[in-house]
Recover the amino acids of this structure.
C-alpha cells in the first residue's frame, strides 16, 4: 500500500512503528476513494446503527452475513450476479422478520433463527451445487482500499437516503423506537415503518460488508450508536451524536492507519471501540444534566 | 354529554391457549362513565386492549360509535377516537423526551397545557425513562387530554391512579370524571370507581354488573 519513498521513519527492529508520509499517500487515487467512502459511510451507517440499537437487533450483522452467503449460494447455483442475489436475500430477510417486531423480544430471537437457518441453507446449497465454500465466502468480503465508483455511488445514495428518512419521519421514528404500542395509538403506521427500517438495515449492513469488509461494519455501523445512545437524550440528539462520532472515528482512524501503515479495518474498529469505552467512562456529567429540569421547554417541539 | 357509545358482543380473548376474556357482552352509552374492577388476572386490561386492537387473539365484535374495524385504516381511526392511558406506562426501549409524548396526541398545545395543569410541564425536556412512575402516568394523562382535545370520543384508562401520590390520585380522578367523553376506567381505586355511573366486575374473564 505504501509507495516507494513514502515511508519517512522506520525504527530498525521495530517494523510496527514504521510511519509513512500521509500527504504522499493521500495523493493516491485508491486512498482518496477510501477516504471519500469512509466519509459517506460515516454519515449513513451510524444512523442505521441507531435503528439497530433502537430495535434491539445487535446480532443483525451476523444474521445478514449468513443471509448474504445464502444469496451468494443461490446466485452461484442459478446464474444471476451473486452480489445482487446477496442484497436481495438480505432485503427479503429483513422484510420477512418484520412481523416478529410486534413483541419487544421478537426481533432479537428472529435474528438468531435467521442466522442459523441461513447458514444451514447456504452450506446445503453450496454442497448440492458443488461450489467451493471458501470461494463463496470470498465474494462476501470487501476492502475499503478497493472501493470502486459503483460502491461510492451506493454509499452516496445511502448517505442521502438514510438521513432523509430520519428527517422526513423523525416524529414517527422516535415514537416507534421508544415503544410500539403508544406509537400505534398515536397514528404511527408501525407495521410498514418497521418493515422499511428492517429492509434498510438489512441492505445497508449487507452492502457495507461488501463495500468495506465485515470488520468495518462494526466500526461504521454498530459502535457509534451505543456511544451516541449514552450521550443523547432524544432521537435527534442520538442521531447527530452517532454521525459526529462516525465522522471523527473514520477520519482519525483512517489517518492513523495510513500514518502507521496498518490495515484500516482493525485500526478503525479499535478507534471506535476506544471512543465507546471513553464515553462509558464519563457518563455521570451527562446523566446529571438529564435529571436537571428545564424552565420553559414546551415552546419547541422540534427536538 | 358527548362521547361515543361502545358495544361489545361475545368478546373472547386468549393469551396463547389460556383464555383471558370469555364471551363478554357489554353496552356503554355515549358519555357514560364505567369502572371496570376485579381481581388481578381477571381480564380487565386484555379487554381494554382488545378495544384498541392491541390484543390480537380476540373474537366477537367491538363497535365504537357504531364503527367496526376490519382494515388497517379502520384500526387507525379506532385508535384516534379512543384515547388510551396504558397500565404501568413503559419507560420505553429508546429515549423519548417528555414533551414528545403529549405532542403525539394530535393536539400538542392542549396536551402541553394539560401537562402544566397536572404539574409535569417542567419535565418536558427530560427523557421519559428518568421520570418516576407517578410523573410518567401524569404525562400519559396529559397526552390523553390532548387526544380528547383532538377529537377522541372515548377514553380507556387502565389504572390511571395506581402510581400518583394521594393528591395526584384525587386530581387525576377529578380530571377523568369531568371529561366530556365516554370513560372506561380499569381501577382498584374506590374513590375513582365512586365517580363513575356504573361499576362492572370481572372475574375469570367474565363480566358482571356490580353497581
Amino acid at each position: 500500500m505504501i509507495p516507494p519513498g513514502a515511508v519517512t521513519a522506520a525504527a530498525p527492529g521495530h517494523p510496527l512503528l514504521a510511519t509513512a508520509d500521509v500527504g504522499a499517500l493521500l495523493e493516491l487515487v485508491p486512498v482518496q476513494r477510501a477516504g471519500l467512502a469512509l466519509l459517506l459511510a460515516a454519515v449513513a451507517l451510524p444512523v442505521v446503527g441507531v435503528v439497530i440499537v433502537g430495535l434491539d437487533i445487535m446480532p443483525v450483522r451476523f444474521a445478514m452475513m449468513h443471509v448474504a452467503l445464502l444469496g451468494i449460494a443461490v446466485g452461484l447455483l442459478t446464474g444471476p450476479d451473486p452480489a445482487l442475489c446477496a442484497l436481495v436475500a438480505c432485503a427479503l430477510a429483513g422484510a420477512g422478520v418484520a412481523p416478529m417486531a410486534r413483541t419487544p423480544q421478537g426481533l432479537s430471537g428472529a435474528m438468531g433463527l435467521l442466522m442459523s437457518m441461513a447458514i444451514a441453507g447456504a452450506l446445503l446449497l453450496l454442497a448440492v451445487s458443488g461450489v467451493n465454500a471458501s470461494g463463496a465466502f470470498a465474494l462476501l468480503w470487501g476492502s475499503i482500499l478497493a472501493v470502486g465508483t459503483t460502491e461510492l455511488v451506493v454509499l452516496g445514495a445511502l448517505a442521502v437516503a438514510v438521513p432523509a428518512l430520519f428527517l422526513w419521519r423523525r416524529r414517527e421514528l422516535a415514537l416507534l423506537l421508544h415503544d410500539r404500542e403508544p406509537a400505534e395509538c398515536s397514528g404511527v403506521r408501525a407495521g410498514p415503518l418497521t418493515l422499511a427500517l428492517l429492509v434498510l438495515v438489512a441492505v445497508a449492513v449487507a452492502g457495507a460488508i461488501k463495500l468495506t469488509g465485515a470488520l468495518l461494519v462494526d466500526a461504521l455501523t454498530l459502535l457509534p450508536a451505543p456511544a451516541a445512545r449514552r450521550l443523547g437524550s432524544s432521537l435527534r440528539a442520538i442521531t447527530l451524536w452517532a454521525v459526529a462520532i462516525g465522522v471523527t472515528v473514520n477520519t482519525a482512524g483512517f489517518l492513523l492507519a495510513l500514518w502507521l501503515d496498518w490495515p484500516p479495518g482493525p485500526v478503525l474498529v479499535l478507534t471506535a471501540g476506544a471512543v465507546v469505552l471513553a464515553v462509558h467512562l464519563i457518563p455521570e456529567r451527562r446523566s446529571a444534566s438529564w435529571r436537571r429540569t428545564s424552565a420553559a421547554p414546551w415552546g419547541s417541539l422540534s427536538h | 354529554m358527548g362521547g361515543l357509545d361502545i358495544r361489545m358482543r361475545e368478546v373472547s380473548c386468549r393469551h396463547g391457549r389460556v383464555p383471558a376474556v370469555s364471551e363478554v357482552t357489554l353496552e356503554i352509552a355515549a358519555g357514560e362513565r364505567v369502572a371496570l374492577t376485579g381481581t388481578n388476572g381477571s381480564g380487565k386490561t386484555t379487554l381494554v386492549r382488545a378495544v384498541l386492537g392491541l390484543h390480537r387473539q380476540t373474537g366477537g365484535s367491538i363497535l365504537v360509535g357504531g364503527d367496526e374495524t376490519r382494515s388497517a385504516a379502520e384500526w387507525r381511526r379506532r385508535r384516534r377516537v379512543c384515547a388510551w392511558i396504558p397500565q404501568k406506562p413503559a419507560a420505553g426501549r429508546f429515549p423519548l423526551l417528555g414533551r414528545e409524548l403529549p405532542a403525539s396526541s394530535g393536539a400538542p398545545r392542549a396536551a402541553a397545557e394539560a401537562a402544566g395543569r397536572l404539574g409535569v410541564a417542567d419535565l418536558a425536556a427530560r427523557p421519559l425513562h428518568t421520570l418516576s412512575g407517578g410523573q410518567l402516568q401524569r404525562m400519559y394523562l396529559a397526552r390523553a387530554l390532548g387526544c380528547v382535545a383532538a377529537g377522541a370520543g372515548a377514553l380507556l384508562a387502565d389504572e390511571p391512579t395506581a402510581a400518583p401520590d394521594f393528591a395526584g390520585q384525587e386530581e387525576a380522578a377529578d380530571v377523568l370524571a369531568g371529561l366530556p367523553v365516554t370513560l372506561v376506567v380499569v381501577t382498584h381505586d374506590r374513590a375513582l370507581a365512586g365517580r363513575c355511573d356504573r361499576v362492572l366486575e370481572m372475574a375469570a374473564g367474565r363480566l358482571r354488573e356490580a353497581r
About this structure: Chain A has 15 helices and two strands.
